[in-house]
Amino acid sequence: MEDLVNLEQFYLKATRHANDPHNLGPLAVFNGHAKITGPCGDTMEFWVHVQDGRIARVSFVTDGCWPSLASGSMTTCLADGKTVEEARELLQEDVLEALDGLPDSHKHCAMLSTNTLRAACDDYLEKKHDGGGKRDRKENV
Ligand code: FES
Ligand 1 centroid vs 121 CA: distance in angstroms? Predict the structure, then answer.
C-alpha cells in the first residue's frame, strides 16, 4: 500500500475503500466474469450474478495498487442493483467522482475497473444469447 498514510488526508474516501474493500473475492455463484490486465501490468477480475436483468451480486479481485482496490470496491457499490445495461454504462469518471478523486497518476485504475465490469456484463450477455465463455484478456486502458 504505497504512500497510503501520506495520501489518506487527501483521498479519504478512496483510502477507506482501499483499507476495507466492499465485495472483495470471487462469487461462488455467478453468470458473468471477466479478467483484464491493464498496460500497467495489474490485473482486475469481476464477477456478476444477474437476476431478472439486474446485478444481484457483484464482486472483484485485483493484484494492483491501492487505488485499484478502491476503484474496484466503488465500482461494485455503484453497480449493485443496477440493470446490466446501466452497469455497462458506468465510466471511469463515475468512479472517480464517487471516490472524491484519485491521484492523477492512478486515475486509470478506475478505467480498468469499469472496463472489467463492462466485460463481465458482456460475458453474461454473450452466455445468455449463445453460451459463450469467460474472458481473459489484456487491454489498453
Ligand atoms: Fe495499475 Fe492501479 S497502477 S491498476
Answer: 21
